[in-house]
Amino acid sequence: MKGLILSGGKGTRLRPITYTSAKQLVPVANKPVLFRVIESIRDAGIDEIGIVIGDTGPEVRAAVGDGRRWGVRITYIPQDSPAGLAHAVKISRDFLGDDRFVMFLGDNCIQGGISPLIEEFGASDRNAQIVLTQVPNPQAYGVVELDTQGRILKLTEKPREPKSNLALVGIYMFDSSIWQAVEAIKPSWRGELEITDAIQWLVEHGMKVFPYIHEGWWIDTGKKDDMLEANRLVLDELQPRNSGYIDRDTQVIGKVIIEAGAEIINSTIRGPAIIGEHTRVVNSYVGPFTSIYHHCVIENSEVEHSIVLEHSTVRNLPGRLEDSLVGRYVDISQSPIKPKAYRLVLGDHSTVGVL
User: Fold this and answer.
1) In angstroms, rounded to a whole number, what is the distance separating the alpha carbons of residues 239 and 257?
2) 3-class DSSP state of 107
3) Quick check: is 346 in a domain?
4) 31-32 and 48-53: which strand pairing?
5) Within a 10 A sphere around the Cβ of 283, how many other Cβ atoms?
6) Which of 25, 115, 168, 197 could, after both became Cys, cross-link 142 (CB 3.0–4.6 A)?
7) Taking the model in full, what pTM does it have?
8) What CA–CA distance (Å, rounded) separates 78 from 91?
9) Can you say how many angstroms the Cα of residue 89 is from the centroid of all Cα atoms in its chain?
10) Treating both helix axes as pointing N-terminal to C-terminal, what angle do 57-64 and 33-43 enclose, rounded to 10 degrees?
11) What is the Cα–Cα distance from 108 to 222, expressed in whole angstroms?
């Protein structure tokens, strides 16, 4: 089998972070989501992976490289425009050939990985296997209706009135019959080739399409709150370790990871939390479900339930920073300049809550 990861798209729901970064490279528990997807596919025994890239292709190439750090071979497949998931499959035919493959959206996090799914599909004569999960807002997803025997009746992309709460998770397995499907379908009202239409074509033409209902957690990290929730869930599963320096005046409580070169001085770290490489936390409190990435400074401040990206500084804040996603090279501090005022430089689509 081969792997296909979709890492295109503009990430509009994560702006302004995605003005300067691919959404798939935003870290969850200090590891980019795309890296987690690669590891899931690698751990399932697949070592040939194609990555469909768009406008952020150069950044993805620079971050991922040729795949050797994971023991896999990476092939990049440029997509001129985000014309739908089925279009991404269609343009990947030269790489995939007639091999069976798993397609994984590069901004998804799933509990437990995909090894059992790959093993089950590889040992079967199924033409396709789709992963479903129950969601509270199915109108935001591709929705699948099943009959009383659990067989697929109909797939609908983002229906206004969903007839089911079973959403497509963003993990699909196909054999070569998918090529007939993607050639047969037409663009939807959104102007895209929808993967739901391609799977519906397989169902209607008598192909063996098996629905697998995932019982664990799954997060589509397309928005800030989703990123924070994925960060919370992943942190809660990690094992504590200390590869940095903690002074004797510091309290570390619960599951905390201190990465190499990090220094914690006269502070309290309450887990689950992770402090990245060469980050300094001084006279501060870092609360649960917080990820501070590498080369950051947290000084005389409190941070909780947040993600702070690399090379950022949080210093001398009078109140707690919480429920926040802070980008790269950001400087947040209390200004000593009088008169007292908020002085901000903000990108498009920013959101700021003030005391």
Assistant:
1) 8
2) coil
3) no
4) unpaired
5) 13
6) 168
7) 0.85
8) 8
9) 20
10) 60
11) 8
Name 38's Cβ contacts closer than 8 Å, sequence gap at least 6: 5, 49, 64, 67, 70, 72
Q: For residues 252 and 273, give the distance between their C-alpha atoms in angstroms, rounded to a whole number.
A: 10
Q: What is the rounded distance in angstroms from the CA atom of residue 70 to the CA atom of residue 68?
A: 5
Q: Do both 269 and 188 map to the same domain?
A: no
307 and 189 within one domain: no
User: Is 348 inside a domain boundary?
Assistant: no
Task: Give 340's DSSP letter.
Answer: P
Place of tokens 């399932």: 44
The amino acid that residue 31 corresponds to is K
40-60 pLDDT, tens digit each: 999 999 999 999 998 888 888
- Backbone φ and ψ for 314, nearest 5 degrees, come out as -125, 115
Residue 108, Cβ density class (10 Å: 0-12 exposed, 13-18 middle, ≥19 buried): buried
Number of domains in the chain: 2
Residue numbers of the domain that contains 42: 2-223
SS3 19: helix
* Separation CA 44–CA 173 (nearest Å): 13
For residue 329, what are the contacts with CB-CB under 8 A and spacing of at least 6?
310, 311, 312
Q: What six digits make up the tokens of 253?
A: 């409580």
18 and 136 fall within a common domain: yes
Separation of alpha carbons 115 and 118, rounded Å: 5
Q: Is the peptide bond before 58 cis (omega within 30 degrees of 0)?
A: no
Cα 174 vs. chain centroid, distance in angstroms?
Answer: 22
Taking the C-alpha atoms of residue 209 and residue 129, their distance in angstroms, rounded to an integer, is 6
Rounded distance, CA 262 to CA 271, Å? Answer: 16
Over the stretch 69-96, which tens digit does the pLDDT of each residue have? 999 999 999 988 878 899 999 999 999 9
Which structure tokens are listed for 192?
Answer: 């895209």
CATH number at residue 314: 2.160.10.10
Please spell the DSSP secondary structure of 225-274, one letter per residue. Answer: HHHHHHHHHHHHHSPPEE-SEE-TT-EEESSEEE-TT-EEES-EEESSEE
| Cβ contact 301:319 at 8 Å | no
Distance CA(165)–CA(145), nearest Å, equals 8
